[in-house]
Design goal:
The protein is α+β, with helices and mostly antiparallel strands and 133 residues long. It is 19% helix and 22% strand. The strands form 3 sheets. Strands 5-4-3-6-7 form a 5-stranded mixed β-sheet, with helices on one face. Strands 1-2 form a two-stranded antiparallel ribbon. Strands 8-9 form a two-stranded antiparallel ribbon.
């Protein structure tokens, strides 16, 4: 799979068997901020990493709505932002999503990273020293 990744790609993302919903990365969890400002991530069929749990916990404590439902690729144009998270990448904004294996899948560039950076700061405030400048 990594051999088919485009140059300058930092992670391969996995979808459901129908190629309609975003599940997770090879070594990361994937989360989106949906049109309503809710944090959305798959609720099942993914590995529930420690960083994912921490992000969900901090969001819940700060009143951010959470939807444990795999983000649908057809809704991508309405997402406010998307990011990867893992122990080595607490909140890494996604700047572009492109599907190289499913040419019919939508693609998207995220020019405004503000929603994700706001969430990243929320996490940094909750756990000092977690996110390096």
């Amino acid at each position: 799979m990594e051999a088919k990744m485009a140059p300058n790609t930092s992670e391969a993302l996995l979808t459901d068997v129908n190629g309609k919903c975003l599940l997770e990365g090879l070594i990361t969890n994937v989360m989106v901020i949906d049109a309503d400002g809710a944090l959305q991530t798959a609720g099942e069929g993914v590995l529930c990493g420690h960083m994912r749990a921490l992000v969900l916990h901090v969001c819940a404590q700060n009143g951010v709505s959470i939807r444990l439902e795999a983000p649908r690729l057809e809704d991508m144009d309405r997402w406010q932002g998307a990011f990867l998270c893992s122990t080595t990448r607490p909140v890494q904004p996604i700047t572009a999503l492109r599907c190289t294996l499913l040419p019919s899948a939508p693609s998207r560039t995220f020019d405004d990273l503000t929603p994700v950076l706001r969430l990243r700061q929320m996490l940094a405030d909750a756990v000092p020293g977690l996110i390096r400048p």
